[in-house]
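Please complete every field before forwarding. Incomplete forms are returned to the sender.

SECTION A: IDENTIFIERS
Entry label: holo-265
Bound molecule: flavin mononucleotide
Molecule representation: SMILES string

SECTION B: INPUTS
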Amino acid sequence: MRLHLTNAGAITLLDASNFKKLDVLVDPQPRERLDQAVARIGRRDGDDHILLAPSVLRFLSGHAGDAIWEAGFTGMIDYAARFGWVNERGEIRAHITLNDSDEVISLADFKAAMRALPAGISAITTGSGEAVAGMIVSSLTSISAEPPLAGFFVNQSSSMRAPLMASGRFVANILGEDHGPVMARFLGAPQGPQRFSEGCWSEGQHGLPVLTNALASLECDIVCTQPLGTHDFVVGKIRKTANREANPMVNFNASTHKLVQLALH
Ligand SMILES: Cc1cc2nc3c(=O)[nH]c(=O)nc-3n(C[C@H](O)[C@H](O)[C@H](O)COP(=O)(O)O)c2cc1C
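SECTION C: PREDICTED COMPLEX
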C-alpha cells in the first residue's frame, strides 16, 4: 500500500490491499504544507522516513473491520516488526518516495478549459443579523440524495471563508435571470450587510439570509470540509428547501447568459 501526500491537500491510501509494500509518496509542495500533512499521519524519522500510526492506515483504507483485510494488515505489521521497522509505540517506519512525475497544465490552459463549462450561479449566504456574509459561486453541485447533500468550493483567501466556518451553516440561493443586481452587489460591495441591499431577503432557519425568489434555496448544515489546492470543498446536509419556477442565470465563457430551450429533432 502507498500513502499519498498530494499537493492538492488530500491524503489518500493507494493500493490498500497490497500488503507486500508500504511507502509514502510525496508530491512536490512547500515544506510547511508537507510538515502539516506528515503531522496528520504520524511523524518524521529523519529526511527519508515517516513513522506511521497503524490506526491512520486502517482509517484511510476504508476496509477496517473487514476480516480478510484485517488479517492481511496484521500480517504486514508482523512482517515489518520482524525486520525492526515497528517501534515500541507500534509505529511503522515507511520510506518517503518523492513524486517527480507530477506534470500539470499551465494556468492559461486550465482557465481556457474551465471557461467552456457552463454552470448555474448561486449566492451562498451565512451568518445572521449584522454578521451576515455572502459570495457568488458557480461551483454549487448536487452530491447525494439520501442523505441530501450539496456542496461548493470556496477560495481559502475569500472573505466568506471565516464567517462560513464560524457559522457552520450556509444557504445556497440559486439565481434566476432577473438576479443581475443581486449578483452585482455581491461582487461589488464589501463583505457584510452591504451585500444584501439588492434583492428580497428573508430569514431562514437560524436567521441565515434566504433569497425569497431564488430558483431554489437550500438551507444546509456543514457536515464536511476538505482543502483541495487553493479551495476548500464545503459539503452541506440540506435541512430545508424552497423552489420557484423561473429561468436560471448561467455562467459560460467568463460571462453570464440566459438559458434557451432547444427543440431536438
Ligand atoms: C460567476 C462567478 C463564479 C464564481 N465562483 C466561485 C466559486 O465557486 N468559488 C469561489 O471561491 N469563488 C467564486 N467566485 C469568486 C467570488 O464570488 C468572489 O469574487 C471571490 O471569492 C472574492 O470574494 P470576496 O471579495 O468576498 O473575498 C466566482 C465569481 C463569479 C463572478
